[in-house]
Design a protein that fits this description.
By secondary structure, the protein is of the alpha/beta class. It is built from 18 helices and 25 strands. Helix 5 crosses helix 18 and helix 14 runs antiparallel to helix 15. The protein is globular, with a radius of gyration of 24 Å. The N and C termini lie far apart (about 60 Å).
Length: about 625
């Protein structure tokens, strides 16, 4: 316990921090009848993007904005608790209850589709991992439009900086845990914080160092630097209060403006169109939890003098467009919806990160790397101390969410056959792996994406592999950062207006996904079982098991265990050229419709190799400037 004692002393000497509830902000309504008849902008969705854009547009004190949110405005402790990272997601009252269609390549399993249903959206319930991805992730977006696009790493970096207020870890923890960071990649003006816990388990540092035992692995200096590697990253947490920092706390709670209105518990029924011009939004009271929509509910219609901004997220933004008559004509006709704008890409190109349920364990974490996160459960002295320092000054292990370190590695680092799989992907008949009857423009966009990924598979600029380190004996989350398969989110043709959309991940539709994920499992075996840095740690494989070695065996394992979602739904209103199945242009304007933009994860054309929350904040910050000032000159 000598090592433990040094940590106890360090934490106990930290200064206690007082904290208080946030002040109430601008006007909030519970009933559509209370809102004004007209606003300059009407924003559909009070989540990560919606609140960010609303805050920025109303900064002048004159521009009027109404945000319409399905969920409630809540001060529940489950939304702000940091410890463990999953308190918000575990509180079902703040989550949509959506199930996918049976996944034919996953033995017809039905997958939970999770998204936040509360003011703040998914930023209120996510795992608080503050990840950005690589520069190539964002240069890829711009490449779909050509060399003069402003949607690039350099074009977005100022908005990543603007989006978050980075507070470095305290000096003692930085030194003892060997945390590295570079403030040049971060800003310090936002109301949304990227903070750090006041404690790190020594085992986490040891597990990071163990990656140096594998050839080609780099240790990156900062998570925001835009390069793959193993690195430390912050938490969406205000380090002064040690509470979750999210869109509500950063872009609503302390914003006192008479021109910023929010109506909650309201379901948008459609975007009002005059021909092909968006003029407003109609909405009704949201149904009680677990109840179907009420067709007789009173309808409120609000006029948008300038624009309607759709920010309902990767699952609901395409649904709102489709019920408003904007989308693939075949989908709308099947649902009995009149087509106003035939836009084939709406609801297509659906993506999420895939979670691989492989499991490994270390039987003997060395004493030099203790305490581990396991010790918090098994060592009474440690757990008692943890409770004491948390009660005294909100420090210690309870300030850790899901962790702050992980590997984000390129494919050539993890696979000896990266060149072959790159060539295999480039040579595919890509349209064959899309839903039957996909529009030619959607197929063209998918081909462009796959050719970009083929290049990425053979270079070291895009991370495909992610292993989250949590300082314990069991392996952390193992994620495929760039799945090749594409799904759909379309209205339910039997009841498009009063049921959730039909979500189909189409997991493993592209067979190379299983091959790539198989190599992700093989590399993880090396880290745990064939690594000079961990050879004395007693590594063992729990699943899929040592006998599962071939591509065919690993594909079978994945069919029974893969989750096609880590709750990062994206891509369904893609920002791509119209001829590539795009839904919005580079100013996020919906093709064929005036005065309508989409600003949320649905516009992401290809997923970044990262948790999507930080990306959505940056998109929203950039969108606010596009709305106010127009496109930048490149």
């Amino acid at each position: 316990m000598a090592r433990l004692s040094s940590f106890f002393v360090a934490i106990l000497t930290l200064t206690p921090t007082a904290y208080s509830r946030h002040l109430r902000a601008s006007k909030v309504f519970l009933d559509g009848r209370q809102v004004q008849n007209e606003y300059d902008y009407v924003i559909i969705g009070g989540g990560t993007a919606g609140l960010t854009v609303a805050d920025r547009l109303t900064e002048d004190g004159k521009t009027t904005v109404l945000v319409i949110e399905y969920g409630v405005l809540s001060e529940a402790a489950s939304l702000t608790t940091v410890a463990g990272g999953f308190s918000g997601m575990s509180d079902s009252q703040f989550m949509y209850d959506i199930r996918s269609v049976p996944q034919v390549n996953l033995r017809n399993r039905v997958i939970s589709v999770l998204a936040g249903k509360v003011v703040g959206g998914s930023s209120a319930v996510n795992a608080m991992m503050t990840i950005r991805g690589t520069a190539e992730d964002y240069d890829r977006w711009g490449a779909f439009f050509g060399k003069n696009s402003h949607w690039t790493w350099e074009g977005l970096l100022p908005y990543f900086k603007k989006a978050l207020n980075f507070v470095p870890p305290n000096a003692d923890i930085t030194r003892t845990a060997n945390i590295t960071y570079d403030t040049s990649f971060w800003g310090n003006t936002s109301g949304v914080y990227a903070g750090w816990p006041s404690y790190q388990f020594p085992a986490t540092t040891a597990q990071m160092e163990a990656f140096k035992g594998l050839p080609g692995v780099e240790i990156a200096s900062d998570s925001g630097s835009g390069v793959p590697g193993v690195y430390w990253y912050p938490t969406f947490m205000d380090p002064k209060t040690v509470l979750r920092s999210f869109a509500k706390t950063g872009h609503y709670d302390n914003v006192k403006r008479a021109n910023y209105h929010l109506v909650t518990q309201s379901k948008v029924t459609k975007i009002v169109l005059d021909g092909t011009t968006a003029t407003g939004v109609s909405f009704v009271p949201a149904p009680a939890r677990g109840q179907p929509g009420n067709t007789a509910a009173p309808v409120t219609t609000v006029t948008a003098r300038k624009e309607v901004i759709l920010a309902a997220g990767g699952v609901h933004s395409p649904q709102v467009l489709q019920v408003s008559g904007i989308g693939p004509k075949k989908v709308l006709s099947a649902a009995g919806i009149d087509t106003i704008v035939d836009l084939p890409g709406v609801g297509q190109n659906f993506q999420d990160h895939g979670m691989i349920s492989a499991s490994f364990q270390f039987a003997r974490i060395p004493q030099s790397a203790r305490p581990s996160s396991d010790d918090l459960r098994t060592n009474r002295t440690l757990s008692t101390w943890s409770s004491q320092v948390w009660a005294a000054n909100r420090t210690g292990p309870n300030s850790i969410a899901t962790g702050n370190s992980a590997a984000w590695l390129s494919f050539p680092v993890i696979s000896p056959r990266s060149a072959k799989l790159s060539a295999d992907l480039a040579a595919q008949n890509h349209a064959a792996y899309l839903p039957t009857g996909s529009d030619p423009t959607v197929a063209a966009g998918y081909r462009a994406q796959m050719l970009s990924y083929a290049s990425a598979l053979s270079n070291n600029n895009t991370a495909f592999y992610n292993l989250v380190l949590q300082g314990g004996s069991a392996s952390g989350l193992l994620v495929d950062l760039h799945p090749l398969s594409r799904g759909t989110v379309n209205v339910n043709p039997a009841n498009p207006h009063n049921t959730e959309p039909q979500v189909d991940y189409r997991a493993l539709a592209n067979p190379l996904d299983a091959t790539i994920m198989g190599d992700i499992v093989r590399f993880t075996r090396k880290y745990y079982l064939d690594n000079p840095k961990t050879k004395d740690w007693g590594g063992r494989e729990v699943s899929p098991g040592a006998s599962v070695t071939t591509d065919e065996q690993l594909a079978t394992f994945l069919s029974s265990s893969l989750s096609p979602s880590v709750y990062h739904p994206a891509g369904t209103c893609a920002m791509m050229p119209l001829e590539l199945g795009g839904v919005v242009d580079e100013e996020l304007k919906v093709y064929g419709v005036k005065n309508l933009r989409v600003v949320d994860a649905s516009v992401i054309p290809t997923l970044p190799g990262a948790n999507t929350c930080q990306t959505v904040y940056a998109i929203a910050e950039k969108a606010a400037d596009l709305i106010r000032y127009g496109a930048p000159k490149v």
